[in-house]
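Exercise 7b. Backbone tokens:
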């Protein structure tokens, strides 16, 4: 399942996390949120970012 999670700390710092996306599709999906929140101060890429669509399909079919 693809989800976008927005975390707001008590100090007002926001963090956007995408889950279930592969490759750069996470950036496309969360772009509108990032634009609304303002300037990006950092980015941490997960292993899902480095997966291709075919790798993800193979993993899903194996379970």
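Sequence design result:
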């Amino acid at each position: 399942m693809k989800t976008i999670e927005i975390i707001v700390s008590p100090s007002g710092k926001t963090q956007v996390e995408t889950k279930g996306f592969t490759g750069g599709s996470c950036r496309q999906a969360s772009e509108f949120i990032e634009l609304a929140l303002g300037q990006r101060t950092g980015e941490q890429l997960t292993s899902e970012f480095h997966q291709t669509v075919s790798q993800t399909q193979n993993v899903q079919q194996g379970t």
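Instructor comment: The first strand starts at residue 3 and ends at 8. The two ends are 15 Å apart (CA to CA).
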